[in-house]
Amino acid sequence: MWGNRQGWIYSVIIAAMMIWFMWDLAGVPPPPTPSGQFPQLWKPIELPVSPDSIHPANDVCDAGDNYRKAIDHYLRDPKLYDRFYNPLPERPPSGKAQPAPDRIQAIDKRLSGLSNLEAIELIVKAASCRDVRLFVRNPEEIVNYNPTEPALDAVRRLGDITNQVASLYQAKGDATFAAHYYDAAFALGSKLYKERLVHAELSIGLGLMADAAQGMKIAALRAKDEAKIGELDEFISRNQEYYQSQVLPLWRTVNNATSDNEALARSAGDVLAMAKTPSADRMWRTESLLRLGLYRFNAARKGDQVAAAQEVLLWTADPDASIRAASTAASQLTVEQYRLIH
Description:
The chain has about 350 residues and is mostly helical. Helix content is about 65%, strand content about 0%. The protein has helices spanning about 5-25, 65-75, 80-85, 100-110, 120-125, 150-170, 175-195, 200-225, 225-255, 260-275, 280-300, 300-310, 320-330, 335-340, and strands at about 60, 130.
């Protein structure tokens, strides 16, 4: 009456499996959607006052070549550079303030060590170059989950030293050499800002430009150059306000390193939107993809976890090497690696 009994058993098993599969799918919430708090997440980062207005770089060359050499020089002997940056204090006799001639002599003594810092002259040499391909040639160097980033630390220290050299020349009254090194530090910051694969690179670039611009402003005040003072004031104030209002709040959302499920759930839609939107700034996309790699293990909701796991696989063949690097790192992150990060 019932025909092939074995066939009916197989049919029941298949039907049961299909019901279970559909139930499981129904239990997965839809992918998260953007919060609506950040209209800027769809757009590239763009400072309101361009760095080119302070230091135009027009030579047809790639600053990345000399910056890479400078990083390599630093990493071969970081203590040499760190000793210059943080010298042992020389206490004046009897605790009194150093007379002006003694201060100049101390500055000259510091600057005499500059000839040993080949990396700093490479930073200066690169200042006039229009283009930069520093980390983008091998984005895996900084687009990763590593706890430390030696190359980024090196370029930060070299920029700080370049600004410091400028301030030393300024302190001894040599405006020409001070401007020379402030320009080089500013140019390094400008190029890091323009390349910006990750937030750390952007942050270093903005910091170097701000420090150099402050030094340039002191020189303009001494020269009573009102036009230059106004130009530098506008660059510093407007760009700082832009970072605080447009970049930092979104960075806090992307870099939401918390165990608070509600906070994670609130940020998931914005992170997913930036990762998958080609018009979003490349830096936001790389950082968002890296964050989605973590969501594979710590997302607050199952739907967020599923969406993250799917999204990170979609960009492993992207034409942009930094997007590929972020997508690959995120999709290949293991639970053991995740536990080390957290």
